[in-house]
Design brief:
Layout: H1 3-59, H2 62-73, E1 78-85, E2 90-95, E3 111-115, E4 118-128, E5 135-146, H3 148-198, H4 212-300, H5 306-336, E6 345-347, H6 349-367, E7 370-375, E8 383-385, H7 387-403, E9 409-420, E10 423-432, H8 439-443, H9 454-460, H10 466-476, E11 481-486, E12 490-500, E13 517-521, H11 525-537, E14 541-544, E15 553-558, H12 565-577, E16 582-586, E17 602-606, H13 611-622, H14 635-639, E18 648-653, H15 657-667, E19 672-677, H16 680-689, E20 694-698, H17 706-714, H18 718-722, E21 725-729, H19 734-742, E22 747-750, H20 755-766, H21 773-780, H22 804-810, H23 815-841, H24 845-860, H25 865-881, H26 887-901, H27 904-908
Parallel strand pairs: 7-9, 13-14, 13-15, 15-16, 16-17, 18-19, 18-20, 20-21, 21-22
Antiparallel strand pairs: 1-2, 1-5, 3-4, 4-5, 6-8, 9-10, 10-12, 11-12
Length: 909
């Protein structure tokens, strides 16, 4: 509210309010006074004339009555005068009288009644009696008065007061307006001056007003304007100085930015060169390293004495360490460059942990360590995550635990830490009883290229990158890793692992038993706890070894000392006295197991054993009751299919006839039914009519490649969506492997197929370990035909063009099949060379790569080591460097193909 308004309210409203209150009180007082005066006048007039009227009525003087009544009627506001006799009869009526009220006798005294606007006064009329002793009642007088004149008087008074109020209000308004203008005009001028000052206009001077207060206000505003002028001049000078300094600083910063930009670009180029160098060096190192590993594997299958085998083992370990170092450096560079991508596929934690345990079983057996895996029952399955990276972290932690542990045990624990909706957090730990770590070493443990002691790199091997990579991988997956250790008492590495659980459910029991008694001997407490828990989970009743009698199965765990001498005789006698099957758990390799006589049946399992192996063995020996139809536990669908009974169907999809035939020859077994498909179209035709338990899929095929075929198979039905499909290829880069796994493939096999890897895959996906022709023939293959037939003089080479001994081993020990494979390969060389020359001349990298890859896959299964090595090198060079610098290598490849062709006639003899 403005000051003007307030002044108007103060000077105008308050007097008017007082006036209104006084006027209201005046009206009330005037009204009350008017009523009283009128009432007194009416009563006094009636009482004054009553004696005269009474005497005139007693004398019967009507004229006098009329004269007196007329005088009374002349009173103001009287309407009528009526005279009544004693009997209540009207004697005289003057004026306009209303009908009288019924009255039986005269009033004893003067009474006044008020009815609305009519006042009626009744006065008794008396006269002196004839005897002179008092007054005689002659009748009464009734006078009527109209009181509306009082209301009219009230309204006149209100109108007069209202008019006076209006005049007073107008006068007060004029006075208040004049005062407010006089008081507020200087204030408005001061406000306008302050507004101009706020807008930057400090060149003003206002005239001081007469009142002292306003005069001081104007004076201070003028001083403020002067101060602002002075401050503005100073600020302008400072701004000019600061601008000059800032301009100099900007020029300096611009120079620094240019230098930083040049340094940043240089760093990016250096990083790109480093990444390209690491990738190229990795593949360049892997190519000869794969050749070395392959030929070491082949050499290991030939007759060697103990010293040669020992040397060969050293070479293998050195190659494995070198390959691990190359992989670590590549992973580290990807993590540093933030180029590592994580996939999200279904993960079975039990299967994954068993795979890692199986990979490290030989080292644990060599050191006689107890390697135990504990996956708690509350861990749901399946979960969604990156199995390859989880496998990599567990593999590294478990490898370190075994490396630094010389006696005792290594235990892997997987438990549920938290579950909210579809989000699950696992707590995974790897504990050992090794050398332990000090507090100082724990602080730097997860740094790159760092180990606890400088001598560890020389004594135990390793690059110091493993734990750094593990930490970064776990952080990328959303978890945390930590270590608890005490020097000389062992270490525990644990990490949290957030995973998705879209369709996860509690893991059902893998086996249903009919409460058989299982007698158990296991000195190692954690292993015994695991066995007892699993047996109870499956419905068995485990008892201690000393509780003999009525047992349906005996499980005994033996150490290396129990395999010879008196200890072996003692345990053999125990087995002979036991009237039930026996499972022997041995912490050693199957090659070192002595012969055991199991009169009532049984089996030997090497520790550490997987859950699937234990399920298969116990199922076979105890013959448990089956579940109702349609309720088979999901965990058994792929993990524990029976070895006996109906054979499992294995589909082999490859466009190369020689590869298909060789794979069939290698995998022929009573437990498998082999189905061959020459293309993706044929595989789809088969899939629409039948199902398969496993598929070996070639990747590079015409018309429809392996990835497209896999996606089409997954869409056919639910059984095909769950069917394990394994990629079989001659060459794969790490990023290609990741892409294939994300697009629906379950694993990747590299040609030539390793028998150990193939058996692991069969055990993992089918729950069987068939007697592969490939594996059996490695030591029994005929070696009589190892010399290639006579041919035109070959050019000297580091590797032979034909090696029938190698071909025979690759063909499962079948010499005739090895010759057929070589002939098929030679017959296809002319077409391969023509297509490769045309593609190279047309600079068509993809077509050239397709034909080189096909030749690489075909040569992997034949006894043509020179061609196999050259075409492997060619494919690696094409994938890493394109068509650059391949001219010389192509000519060497063509020459090797020509040398191999010269052997065709000799192979047909």
């Amino acid at each position: 509210m403005s000051l003007n308004t307030r002044l108007l309210f103060a000077l105008l409203g308050l007097p008017l309010l007082v006036y209104a209150i006084m006027a209201f009180l005046l009206v009330l007082h005037a009204d009350a006074t008017g009523h009283t005066v009128l009432e007194e006048r009416l009563v006094s007039t009636a009482e004054l004339l009553a004696p005269s009227l009474g005497e005139a009525m007693a004398d019967g003087d009507s004229q006098r009555l009329e004269r007196l009544a007329g005088k009374l009627l002349e009173q103001r506001n009287l309407r009528a005068v009526t005279l009544f006799d004693e009997q209540g009869n009207r004697l005289l009526v003057m004026g306009s009288s209303l009908p009288p009220s019924a009255r039986l006798h005269a009033p004893e005294a003067t009474t006044l009644s008020m009815e609305d606007d009519l006042w009626r006064v009744q006065t008794p009329l008396t006269s002196e009696s004839l005897s002179g002793r008092g007054r005689t009642q002659n009748g009464w007088l009734e006078a009527e008065m109209d009181s509306r004149t009082l209301v009219l008087e009230r309204y006149k008074l209100i109108a007069s007061l209202s008019l006076g109020g209006m005049l007073l209000g107008l006068l007060l308004f004029l006075i208040a307006f004049a005062i407010s203008r006089y008081a507020t005009r200087p204030i408005e001028e001061a406000s306008q001056a302050l507004y101009r000052l706020s807008r930057g206009d400090d060149r003003l001077q206002i005239t001081p007003a007469r009142p002292v207060e306003l005069h001081q206000l104007a004076k201070h505003i003028n001083r403020l304007a002067e101060y602002l002028q002075h401050a503005r001049r100073n600020m302008q000078e400072q701004i000019e100085q600061a601008t000059s300094e800032l301009q100099e600083s900007m020029e300096t910063i611009e120079e620094q930015n240019i230098k930083l930009d040049l340094a940043h670009r240089s760093a990016l180029r250096a990083n790109a060169v480093k990444s390209e160098f690491l990738a190229n060096m990795s593949h360049e190192i892997r190519t000869p390293l794969n050749g070395i590993i392959g030929f070491c594997r082949l050499l290991g299958r030939s007759p060697l004495d103990s010293r040669q085998k020992e040397w060969l083992d050293h070479v293998r370990r050195a190659c494995d360490n070198l390959l691990m170092l190359v992989n670590d450096v590549l992973d580290f560079s990807k993590l540093e460059a933030d180029r590592l991508t994580l996939e999200e596929v279904d993960v079975d934690i039990v299967t994954l942990v068993d795979e890692v345990i199986g990979l490290h079983a030989p080292e644990a057996q060599r050191k006689q360590l107890n390697l135990v895996a504990m996956v708690y029952d509350d861990v749901p399955t399946p979960l969604c995550g990156d199995p390859l990276r989880i496998h990599q972290v567990l593999n590294n932690l478990l490898g370190n635990a075994l490396k630094f542990t010389h006696e005792g045990d290594v235990i892997v624990r997987v438990m549920l830490d938290n579950q909210e909706g579809q989000h699950v957090v696992l707590h995974i730990s790897v504990s050992d009883t090794g050398i332990g770590l000090s507090d100082e070493h724990q602080q730097q443990l997860f740094s790159a290229f760092s180990q606890a002691e400088p001598s560890h790199s020389r004594q135990f091997g390793g690059s110091g990158l493993g734990l750094s990579i593990c930490r970064q991988l776990i952080q990328r997956m959303g978890g945390e890793i930590r270590v608890e250790s005490e020097l000389g008492r062992g270490s525990t590495f644990s990490f949290t692992l957030p995973l998705l659980a879209h369709q996860a459910d509690e893991r059902p029991p893998e086996l249903v038993l009919d409460n058989p008694i299982v007698r158990l001997h296991e000195p190692h407490l954690p292993t015994r706890n695991v066995l007892e828990h699993l047996l109870e989970r499956w419905g068995a009743c485990p008892v201690s070894f000393i509780d003999a009698g009525n047992e349906a199965l005996l499980v005994i765990s033996l150490e290396y000392d129990d395999f010879e001498g008196e200890r072996k005789g003692y345990w053999q006698s125990i087995i002979a006295q036991t009237p039930c099957p026996v499972i022997i758990l041995a912490n050693t390799t199957s090659f070192e197991l002595p012969h055991w006589d199991l009169p009532h049946g049984g089996d030997l399992l090497c520790k550490p054993f997987t859950r699937a192996q234990l399920v298969t063995t116990v199922r076979r020996l105890l013959q448990p009751t089956g579940l109702p139809a349609g309720q088979e536990p999901k965990a058994l669908e792929l993990a524990s299919k029976p070895v006996s009974g109906a054979p499992l169907t294995l589909l082999i999809v490859d466009d190369n006839t020689a590869n298909r035939e060789l794979l069939r020859a290698m995998l022929e077994s009573s437990a498998l039914r082999i189905v061959l498909a020459a293309s993706g179209r044929e595989a789809l035709e088969f899939a629409r009519q039948q199902t398969a338990d496993m598929v070996l899929m070639d990747i590079r095929m015409p018309d429809m490649n392996g990835i497209e075929t896999t996606k089409a198979l997954r869409r056919i039905s639910g059984s095909w969506a769950r069917c394990p499909i394994i990629a079989v290829t001659a060459h794969v880069l790490n990023n290609e492997r990741q892409q294939w796994l994300s697009e629906g493939l379950d694993d990747v096999l590299i040609k030539p197929i390793n028998d150990v890897q193939l058996q692991q895959l069969m055990q993992r996906f089918l729950g069987i370990t068939p007697e592969l022709a490939f594996g059996d023939s490695l030591s029994t293959a005929p070696l009589t035909d190892t010399t290639p037939p006579v041919a035109p003089a070959p050019l000297p080479s580091t590797l032979p063009a034909v090696d029938l001994a190698l071909g025979t081993r690759l063909a499962g020990g079948k010499a005739s099949l090895a010759r057929q494979q070589l002939v098929r390969l030679i017959d296809s060389l002319e077409e391969h060379e023509r297509q490769m020359r045309e593609a190279f001349q047309a600079n068509d990298l993809n077509t050239l790569l397709d034909w080189v890859h096909g030749l690489n896959g075909a040569s992997r299964y034949c006894g043509a080591p020179e061609l196999a090595l050259l075409v492997e090198t060619m494919e690696t060079r094409l994938r890493t460097s394109g068509l650059r610098h391949v001219d010389t290598l192509l000519e060497e490849l063509y020459a090797a193909m020509a040398r191999l062709t010269q052997y065709r006639d000799g192979l047909l003899e």
